[in-house]
TrEMBL record:
GO biological process, one term: amino acid metabolic process
Residues found modified as N6-(pyridoxal phosphate)lysine: 314
Signal sequence, renumbered to the chain: none
Listed GO MF terms: carboxy-lyase activity; pyridoxal phosphate binding
Organism the protein comes from: Hibiscus trionum
Cofactors: pyridoxal 5'-phosphate
InterPro entries named among the record's database cross-references: Aromatic_deC, PyrdxlP-dep_de-COase, PyrdxlP-dep_Trfase, PyrdxlP-dep_Trfase_major, PyrdxlP-dep_Trfase_small
PANTHER family: GROUP II PYRIDOXAL-5-PHOSPHATE DECARBOXYLASE (PTHR11999), TRYPTOPHAN DECARBOXYLASE 1 (PTHR11999:SF157)
Keyword field contains Cell cycle: no
Keyword tags: Decarboxylase, Lyase, Pyridoxal phosphate
Family: Belongs to the group II decarboxylase family.
Protein name: Aromatic aldehyde synthase
Length: 504
């Protein structure tokens, strides 16, 4: 006991931030992290542990006395790492990979270092002004109209996730509509999106007080590439108006989660604007591709929408979480979300000469996340960010060609970005249930090897395998190896089938 007594504060001041101790331990942590990145391929991509594994291995109570850094790090290696699904593995092809970078990491370190709680301009002028700058820079890279920048009537803000970006704009749209139709008529407000829209939309609508009966999920089809049809939208909106309801918000997709389908902004926004709706574009994943001229066409018509969100944590090398939101007119947002308590009052805010980002988001405190984007944009330049997008797309194209070259497989939905939607379909005569079962088996087998992780979706009633290229460490050899593994699984399954069929 006496040995550790010196680490225990009795009446003396306990100082948990000693710069020299920090230097030493942070060095060791950086070494751990660099080793992790270097050796990441040696771990199974999808964690193979069973539920409850960690709870069983950790003590029921926290220690009374301090434990050495080395002891804690040993437990990280022994207990935490095996329970990780390694999102940064180059063999991670599930969901949408979340991209990272050295510059993003360094920016994050600095963000943590300052621990700025920049709710308003005065709480850290640099945090607010850097955020304004990087959001204007990104707007320029996307060739957004000037009205989406702080040069114009709008501007951009960093939210945590797309859900929050949509929630704040929906609340702005709701309040704007209620000033016209009356506060008692919230039950009449109707929102629209395609049936491919991310599940968070319905949840956000609930949180914003939109009646569940008034959330329109408009059907899409495989033949229509799963994008929302302006005709279908018009039909739905006109029926609601005829029934005395009030269209208030349209959420469009630039790259759906299941298949990266893109809704045509221009004609859809025209329909919405005839009815005075707020139009939002959710470009969480694919929006990043629009920094390349060859993908910018997907933003055609963007001048007609009210807001756009894009998550650089998905495809622009930022770490979690970072969801960029731009609005053409910031007044509606601020009107809906501003607060003015005495304890936050200051000359600058009152003179209206500054931006207070607390009025653009749900919470009050906010992290200095723009440092991450600033480091990324400066360290790599637009040219390298474009190269990064293009190289992912090139690898996805390569995988798509592998799939096409094997007659047992098919591409289910044409590829647009870094995601390939395909399935095993060895015999057209198998029923859809049987084909689905085959694909489920193939996916389970591939993921159980720990050598690759991919996921599935179901669209238009079809069970589809998703192969999403984009993890930062992925290069061609990983894609080649993944395809080889998938083929191996298909070989084994098809051999079994032949046995089954001859046994019949
Ligand atoms: C991933 C995704 C979301 C939600 O993810 P965030 O990490 O909150 O941005 C929302 N919409 C789409 C289209 C997505 O792909």
């Amino acid at each position: 006991m006496g040995r550790i007594e010196s680490n225990v504060s009795q009446n003396s001041h306990f100082n948990p931030l000693n710069p020299e101790e920090f230097r030493k331990q942070a060095h060791e942590m950086v070494d751990f992290i660099a080793d992790y990145f270097q050796n990441i391929e040696s771990y199974p991509v999808l964690s193979q542990v069973q539920p409850g594994y960690l709870r069983a291995n950790l003590p029921e109570n926290p220690p009374d006395r301090p434990e050495p850094f080395e002891t804690i790090m040993k437990d990280v290696q022994k207990h935490i790492v095996p329970g990780m699904t390694h999102w940064l593995s180059p063999n991670f092809f599930a969901f949408f990979p979340s991209t990272v970078s050295t510059a993003g990491f360094l920016g994050e370190m600095l963000c943590t270092c300052f621990n700025s709680v920049g709710f308003n301009w005065l709480a850290s002028p640099a945090a607010t002004e850097l955020e304004m700058t990087v959001m204007d820079w990104l707007a320029g890279m996307l060739k957004l109209p000037e009205s989406f920048t702080f040069q114009g009537s709008g501007g951009g803000v960093i939210q945590n996730t797309t859900s929050e970006a949509i929630l704040v704009t929906l609340i702005a749209a709701r309040d704007k509509a209620l000033t016209v139709v009356g506060a008692d008529n919230v039950n009449k407000l109707v929102v629209y999106a395609s049936d491919q829209t991310h599940s968070m939309f319905a949840k956000v609508c609930k949180i914003a007080g939109i009646s569940v009966r008034n959330i329109r999920s408009i059907p899409t089809t495989l033949a229509g590439g799963f994008s929302l049809s302006p005709f279908e939208l018009r039909t739905a909106v006109e029926a609601d108006v005829a029934a005395g309801l009030v269209p208030v918000y349209l959420c469009l997709n630039l790259g759906t989660t299941s298949t990266t389908a893109v809704d045509p902004i221009e004609p859809l926004a025209r329909v919405a604007k005839e009815h005075g709706m707020w139009v939002h574009v959710d470009a969480a994943y694919a929006g990043s591709a629009c920094i390349c001229p060859e993908f910018r066409n997907h933003l055609n018509g963007i001048e007609r929408v009210d807001s756009l969100s894009l998550s650089p944590h998905k495809w622009l090398l930022s770490f979690l979480d970072c969801s960029c939101l731009w609005v053409q007119n910031s007044n509606a947002l601020i009107k809906a979300l501003s607060t003015n308590p005495e304890y936050l009052r200051n000359k600058q805010s009152e003179s209206d000469s500054v931006v207070d980002f607390k009025d653009w988001q749900i919470g009050t405190g906010r992290r200095f996340k723009s440092l991450r984007l600033w480091f990324i944009l400066r360290s790599y330049g637009v040219v390298n960010l474009q190269a990064h997008i293009r190289s992912d797309v090139r690898m996805a194209k390569m995988f798509e060609e592998f799939v096409r070259s094997d007659p047992r497989f098919e591409i289910v939905v044409p590829r647009q970005f870094g995601l390939v939607c395909f399935r095993l379909n060895p015999d057209e005569n198998y029923g859809s249930d049987y084909t689905e079962m085959l694909n489920r088996k193939l996916l389970d087998w591939v993921n159980s090897t720990g050598r690759v992780y991919m996921t599935h979706t179901k669209v238009g009633g079809v069970y589809v395998l998703r192969f999403a290229v984009g993890a930062t460490l992925t290069d061609e050899r990983h894609v080649v190896a993944a395809w080889k593994l998938i083929k191996e699984g298909a070989d084994a399954l098809c051999d079994q089938l032949i046995c089954l069929n001859t046994n019949y």
